[in-house]
Design a protein that fits this description.
This protein has 661 residues and is an alpha/beta fold. It contains 21 helices and 32 strands. Helix 5 packs across helix 6. The longest helix is centred in the N-terminal third of the chain and has 17 residues. It binds adenosine-5'-monophosphate-propyl ester. The site of adenosine-5'-monophosphate-propyl ester has 21 residues, from helix 12, strand 22, strand 26 and strand 27.
């Protein structure tokens, strides 16, 4: 039976289910359908089964879609597992596929990037123009002493130069480490220090909600405590006065006028396992993890998944509204769309600036066909009502996407119906910084259930298991794991290979990758991701470690001890709630609560600003001193405390009564 939103309510296991079937023209024209026919399969299930049983063959086929300087000797080398190596012996460069190969075709004059500033300014770049900008920047980097293997830190606003900087590094075999422009001093210092970067690329500032984000000032403070930095290259974006330290800081526009900044620059052939970038992400300790991705396997994984899930057509205009500074931006703004020869659109600022029509105006103005965003943005825009989008022609949209956290069915339905007109399949893509590419995601032919990422993508074997890696029965919660390696997988953690082995593979003998998420599978094999099982909080889709927030708090003189937890929040998904024990002699006050919130924001960045801080006299802990955050969370939610059978946990129960003084 068809219901008003275009979905079919189907009887499944005795209960009615909401399932959305894709329009037949989308299915007919889908890249996946073409591939399925080419392989001689009549259903997706058969194709998927084949791709798992022959996953090396599948990925090898996907690798053949790209150009290599020298082919591989072996598709997968698992001799050093869990340090898997893909396409060994091959030589390649991701930038050759993202730019160079298009220059040999008509695509050289195709628009690669359309950018709109928050102030309404526009810039567009053809593939030829992107090549020119990237080559000049690459030559500047070389001129400033950047060599192969050097890690260059990039801390920039959402402007084309951020993208060009990343590509320039990869082109010359340097490794980029992008630090999200919303991060603050401590986060920048920590990442620059771990990577031991000699060069930092930044800007005088960025624009957000009409205000200047003081990137250079923050970078200055971070560089004061970053002895590795020798050179800071500064893009002029805002034009406001900033401090430039002679001998260290250089304006990019000055460097670009020098003879070294030639438009000719060779893309360096590299071994396929050469690192392309480091991206820091939060884990369960206070120290962010430097996730390492390489050129070869990464370009294969992201381009194949982009092709199958986002179904790019030559004439499409694609908009991923994430920030290039996160993995979503790395994989699905910068690399995969460029590799696939897409025309990408990016917008610099806030979705509701100056009014909540901004995004819909962009969709209409640029004729966007594919829009990929996050549940938090969808919820935020939904709040302003349907009148804003209804004034715009959104009929160009063909496909929608969501990423970053579970999407609640209400937001799913709104996005699907109000923005997608009920005709655009919504790709809810589950993946991680570590996986590099989509792992569980529909394709345009998949029947959709709001809130489920549906099935694993081709070549990926996911499962829901118990502690001993045994599959959980249907509809039961368990750990979400991946049972076979995939080409875009992280290779290690920078400076911490041991943590890579222990945290993700639970020891060297394991062949199962632990995602850190819990999930369940329903009777039709659909995956439903529930959330993190570790001490990671997803705030508006941003990943924050409780330990990082706690250490920002205790760096304030008034704080003796702190605990942070995530509690459900209507817009943000989760919001940060903190419990603080004050240093001796310090009295709690509202003013102090505000001061501490501002302190965390200035240490880590505005995204980490706690929603609430409660002053307490003790915290529930295990005997070994580990804070029992789940006890705090259960108490805050008024839930049963569950199994607290160990002595330590009983102890903490007593302490709980002392909370909320
Ligand atoms: O908990 C899952 C959640 O985000 C985590 C990964 O975060 P990050 O590395 O920052 O990467 C985000 C962008 C790829 C996952 O472990 N997550 C991501 N996408 C989804 C999701 N949870 C549910 N549904 C999703 N589509």
């Amino acid at each position: 039976m068809e219901n008003p939103t275009g979905s079919i309510l189907r009887e499944g296991g005795g209960k009615e289910e909401e399932i959305y079937y894709p329009p037949s023209d989308v299915v007919e024209n889908a890249n996946l359908s073409r591939y399925m026919k080419q392989k001689g399969f009549s259903t997706w299930e058969e194709l998927y089964r084949w791709s798992c049983e022959n996953f090396e063959e599948y990925w090898e086929e996907m690798a053949r879609r790209l150009e290599w300087y020298r082919p591989w000797d072996q598709v997968l080398d698992d001799s050093g597992k869990p340090f898997y190596r893909w396409f060994t012996g091959a030589r390649c460069n991701i930038v050759h596929n993202a730019i160079d190969r298009h220059l040999k075709t008509w695509r050289r004059n195709k628009q690669a990037l359309i950018w709109e500033g928050e102030d309404g300014s526009h810039r567009t770049f053809s593939y030829l123009a992107v090549n020119r900008e990237v080559s000049k920047l690459a030559n500047v980097l070389k001129g400033m002493g950047v060599a192969r293997g050097d890690i260059v830190s990039i801390y920039m606003p959402r402007v084309p130069e951020l993208i060009f900087s990343m590509l320039a590094c990869a082109k010359i075999g340097a490794v980029h480490s992008v630090i999200y422009g919303g991060f603050s001093v401590e986060a920048v210092r920590e990442r620059v220090g771990d990577a031991q970067s000699k060069v930092l690329l930044t800007a005088d500032g960025g624009f957000m909600r009409g205000k200047i984000v003081e990137l250079k000032r923050i970078a200055d403070e971070a560089m004061d405590h970053s002895p590795s930095i020798q050179t800071c290259i500064v893009l002029r974006r805002t034009g406001h006065a900033v401090n430039m330290q002679a001998g260290r800081d250089y304006w990019l526009h000055d460097l670009l006028t020098l003879p070294i900044a030639s438009t000719k620059c060779e893309t360096v052939p590299l071994d396929s396992e050469t690192p392309a970038f480091i991206l820091y992400t939060s884990g369960s300790t206070g120290k962010p993890k430097g996730v390492v991705h390489v050129h070869g396997g990464y370009m294969v994984g992201i381009s194949a998944t982009f092709h199958m899930t986002f179904d790019l057509k030559e004439e499409d205009r694609y908009w991923c509204a994430a920030d290039p500074g996160w993995i979503t931006g790395h994989s699905y703004i910068v690399y995969a769309p460029f590799i696939e020869g897409a025309t990408s659109f990016i917008y610099e600022g806030a979705p509701n600036y100056p009014y909540p029509n901004r995004w819909w105006q962009c969709v209409e103005r640029y004729g966007i066909n594919i829009l990929y965003t996050a549940p938090t943005a969808i919820r935020g825009l939904m709040r302003f009502g349907n009148a804003w989008p209804s004034r715009y022609d959104l009929s160009t949209l063909r496909l929608l996407g969501s990423v970053g956290e579970p999407i609640n069915p209400e937001a799913w339905r709104w996005f699907h119906k109000v923005i997608g007109g009920g005709r655009c399949p919504l790709m809810d893509t589950w993946w991680q910084t570590e996986t590099g590419m989509f792992m569980i995601a529909p394709n345009p032919t998949t029947p959709l259930k709001p809130g489920s990422g549906t099935y694993p993508v081709l070549g990926v074997v996911a499962d829901v298991v118990d502690d001993r890696h045994a599959a959980k029965p249907v509809d039961e919660d368990g750990f979400l794991v991946i049972r076979k390696p995939w080409p875009a997988m992280m290779r290690t953690l920078l400076n911490d290979p041991e943590r890579y082995v222990q945290q993700y593979w639970r020891g060297e003998q394991s062949e199962v990758y632990f995602t850190g998420d819990s999930a369940r599978k329903d009777a039709q094999g659909y995956f439903w991701v529930i959330g993190r099982v570790d001490d990671v909080i997803k705030v508006s889709g941003y990943r924050l470690g409780t330990a990082e927030i706690e250490s920002a708090l205790v760096s304030h003189r008034a704080v003796a001890e702190a605990a942070a937890i995530g509690l459900p929040h209507e817009l943000k998904g989760s919001a940060i709630h903190c419990y603080v024990i004050l240093s001796q002699g310090i009295e709690p006050s509202e003013g102090l609560e505000d001061e501490l919130k501002a302190h965390v924001a200035s240490e880590m960045g505005p995204i980490a600003k706690p929603e609430r801080i409660q002053f307490v006299s003790s915290l529930p802990k295990t005997r070994s001193g580990k804070i029992l955050r789940r006890v705090l969370k259960a108490k805050a939610l008024g839930q049963e405390l569950g199994d607290l059978s160990t002595l330590e946990e009983q102890l903490s129960l007593q302490q709980l009564s002392m909370l909320n003084r």
